[in-house]
Amino acid sequence: MYIEFDLQNQGYWRDRELIETSLKMWHEQYSIAYRTKPARLKLRVTFDHDETYTFWAMTWNPRQNKVLAQYCIVSDLNNKI
């Protein structure tokens, strides 16, 4: 599984920095480690345990910010069969 944020071409670096900063604040509040990986115009976030994605979705607060709200949780169940 991973979380995928959509990044726009024009504001790529600004949006990526905003997401990274918000993730860092979330990490400091809940002490849960994460990893990020850029992929084209997307930023992927991964955790070690699948249960963490549910917790993240319940606690992530984009505060009316369009960039922080443009994400989806992608399941890789097809790769586990």
Outline the structure in words.
- The mean pLDDT is 90.
- The protein has three helices and four strands, in the order βαββααβ.
- The chain has helices at 12-30, 51-59, 66-69; strands at 2-6, 35-39, 42-46, 71-74.
- It has one domain (2-61).
- It has 81 residues and is α+β, with helices and mostly antiparallel strands.
- The chain has a four-stranded antiparallel sheet with strand order 2-3-1-4.
- It starts with a strand and ends in a 7-residue tail after the last strand.
Give a quick set of tags describing it.
single chain; 81 residues; alpha+beta; 4-stranded antiparallel β-sheet; 3 helices; 40% helix
Write the layout of secondary structure elements.
Layout: E1 2-6, H1 12-30, E2 35-39, E3 42-46, H2 51-59, H3 66-69, E4 71-74
Antiparallel strand pairs: 1-3, 1-4, 2-3
- As a whole number of angstroms, the C-alpha radius of gyration is 13 Å
In which range does the helix fraction lie? 25-40%
H/E element sequence: EHEEHHE
Largest sheet: 4 strands, antiparallel
Structure annotation, total helices: 3
> Oligomer, anyone?
single chain
Q: Mean pLDDT, as a whole number?
A: 90
SS-based class: alpha+beta
Output the strand order for the largest sheet.
2-3-1-4
Spatial separation of the terminal alpha carbons = 14 Å
Tally of distinct domains: 1
Per DSSP, what share of the residues sits in E-state strands of 2 or more residues? 15-25%
The count of DSSP E runs of length 2 or more, i.e. the number of strands, is 4
Overall geometry comes to globular
Low-confidence stretches at least 5 residues in length (pLDDT < 50)? none
